[in-house]
Design a protein that fits this description.
Elements (H helix, E strand, L loop, with lengths): L2 E7 L3 H12 L4 E4 L6 H4 L30 H14 L4 E2 L4 E7 L2 E6 L3 E9 L6 E2 L12 E2 L12 E5 L3 H12 L3 E5 L14 H10 L3 E3 L2 E6 L3 E6 L4 E5 L2 E4 L3 E2 L2 H6 L26 E3 L14 H4 L1 H14 L2
Parallel strand pairs: 1-2, 1-6, 2-3, 6-17, 8-15, 9-10, 9-15, 10-11
Antiparallel strand pairs: 4-5, 5-6, 7-16, 12-13, 13-14
Helix pairs in contact: 1-8
Length: 324
């Protein structure tokens, strides 16, 4: 069995950036991805526009040319396909890691399609695969969606959107424009300041004029087949006729995966995994973290534009280790 210098888990932008750094440093590698190339971006809403400009999403010195001030999901998919082809990256798609064991100073990875041996592992798995559940009665009903693809199915329907961050605001505006009767339920007292600056005034104006209904300082208490019950901060319960609940409550890193590797999760506010700030190496020798997963529950700390540097930091450390 061939032993790779590195196995990279995750074929998102940061996983791809890590692979490119491996090519540049002559470090042998493969990428293992349980879904499609840049799987999280693929699962974004069809009409999503990035907050970042295209140059901030670039990796591997491949220019990202967008026809818009802010690039779209489809442009990003096209761009990262071009990056993978340009660098001839070795990517194993639709292959799920099932177990990792340490064996004689290296790691043995068993997947749904094979077995691999590696001196080092880079975990760049992101956070988009596990919804942050509300844990309320009825959350398991088919009418409750934690992901939003496109608004057409909500035409003429009464929907509740949970949340006040970018994803919730995007969903509320898009479904309302396509003919849904939209009510927002928001724990905070206002729309968050972090919402995209070109959208925030729009949603606030729609709420002010009553086109979109909003309950601030409120939370969802329960969901039934035809209604949903919300509770305000003063304890008042309000029952709303409802066809769908779109819970835009965020997503979680795969803490079970990290724990299975023996990575220590800190007992802090955000359950931050343990890693060295200079090399990104965890408490497990030879296992590194890259990208958004480094922030634990603080999933708005690391983005593509500010975590691209992780790739060079990690691979530089690995390359230096391999020469000694």
């Amino acid at each position: 069995m061939k032993e790779f210098d590195v196995v990279i888990l995750g074929a998102g932008p940061i996983g791809l950036a890590c692979a490119i750094s491996c090519v540049q440093k002559n470090v042998s590698y493969i990428i293992i991805e349980k879904g499609a190339l840049v799987n999280s971006i693929y699962n974004y809403p069809l009409n999503m526009t990035f907050f970042s400009t295209s140059e901030k999403l670039e990796i591997g010195d491949v220019p990202f040319i967008s026809h818009n001030p802010k690039p779209t999901r489809s442009e990003a998919l096209e761009y990262y396909r071009r990056v993978a082809l340009h660098w001839k990256l070795d990517i194993r798609l639709y292959e799920k890691v099932e177990s990792v064991i340490e064996a004689g100073g290296s790691y043995l990875l068993s997947t749904s399609k094979g077995t691999y041996q590696a001196k080092n592992i880079i975990v760049a798995t992101g956070f988009y695969d596990i919804p942050n559940l509300m844990n309320v009665p009825g959350e398991d009903l088919p009418k409750v969606h934690h992901y939003h693809k496109e608004p057409h199915i909500y035409f003429g329907q009464k929907i509740i959107v949970i949340g006040a961050a970018n994803s919730a605001v995007d969903v509320a505006m898009e479904t309302w424009r396509k003919g849904a009767d939209v009510t927002m339920v928001i724990r905070d007292e206002s729309i968050r300041d972090s919402v995209k600056y070109w959208i925030k005034p729009d949603i606030e104006n729609r709420i002010t004029e009553g086109s979109i209904k909003a309950y601030f300082n409120a939370s969802l208490k329960s969901i039934s087949e035809h209604t949903a019950t919300i509770q305000t901060i003063d304890g008042e319960e309000i029952v709303i006729d409802n066809d769908y609940v779109l819970a835009m409550t965020g997503y979680l890193p795969d803490f079970n995966l990290l724990k299975s590797f023996g990575i220590v999760i800190n007992d802090d506010e955000y359950s931050t995994p343990t890693y060295d700030l200079d090399t990104m190496e965890t408490n497990r020798k030879g296992i590194y973290l890259a990208g958004v997963i480094c922030g634990g529950l603080k999933t708005n700390k690391w983005f593509i534009e500010n975590s691209r540097i992780h790739a060079a930091m990690i691979v530089d450390a690995i390359a230096e280790k391999l020469t000694h």
